[in-house]
């Protein structure tokens, strides 16, 4: 029994190394070949299902990743195109932070990006993790830039939460970052 198992393992190694099931037939391990072929078919079927399922799972995460790419290119139009018409866009912060507030709808979110561009210059906006769970995506990362009015450094780690509807549109966004540091940079 042990010898059959060792033969099967060695033969299996050869198959995967040479990527050919013919090696098993030549080695005389026909029963091992049948088991291996059956296990390969089951594994192949399972992986096909898993890959299809994973593509569905990362759908919203891919959209969020594309949003960060668009932001780095200055393509605000793409970001706006991902929003539902009734989106709620929340950006934390004290009154000293020019772009802080709650925005309703894509036109209002355009105003947020205008305020952001008029008050800040970001050199880095780096997502480090994008995690998806159902229709929620949480992204974490860091940002570095300059407050244009004061020329002070803006630097913070951040967490952004996106909620999607079934049509793949963002219905709620919340941005959390070091509001005290940003307030000091924008302040007098």
Structural commentary:
This protein is α+β, with helices and mostly antiparallel strands. It has 2 domains: 2-54, no CATH class; 59-186, Nuclear Transport Factor 2, Chain: A. It is 51% helix and 31% strand. The chain has helices spanning 2-18, 22-27, 30-57, 59-73, 76-81, 105-119, 179-186; strands at 83-91, 101-104, 120-133, 136-147, 153-164, 170-177. A 6-stranded mixed β-sheet has the order 2-1-6-5-4-3. β5 (153-164) and β6 (170-177) form a beta hairpin. The longest helix has 28 residues, at 30-57. It is globular, with a radius of gyration of 26 Å. Residues 15-27 and 49-57 have low confidence and may be disordered.
List the helices and strands and how they pair.
Layout: H1 2-18, H2 22-27, H3 30-57, H4 59-73, H5 76-81, E1 83-91, E2 101-104, H6 105-119, E3 120-133, E4 136-147, E5 153-164, E6 170-177, H7 179-186
Parallel strand pairs: 1-6
Antiparallel strand pairs: 1-2, 3-4, 4-5, 5-6
Entry summary:
The protein has 188 residues and is an alpha+beta fold.
Query: What is the approximate shape?
Result: globular
SSE string, helix = H, strand = E? HHHHHEEHEEEEH
- Low-confidence parts: 15-27, 49-57
Say what the CATH topology of the largest domain is. Nuclear Transport Factor 2, Chain: A
Number of strands: 6
Share of residues in strands: 25-35%
Please give the share of residues in helix. Answer: 40-55%
Tell me the number of helical segments per DSSP (H or I, 4 or more residues long). Answer: 7
Distance between the termini: 82 Å
Structural class: alpha+beta
State the strand order across the main sheet.
2-1-6-5-4-3
Largest sheet: 6 strands, mixed
Return the domain count: 2
Mean pLDDT: 81
Q: Using only CA atoms, what is the Rg?
A: 26 Å
The CATH architecture of the largest domain can be named as Roll
Please identify the top-level CATH class of the largest domain: Alpha Beta
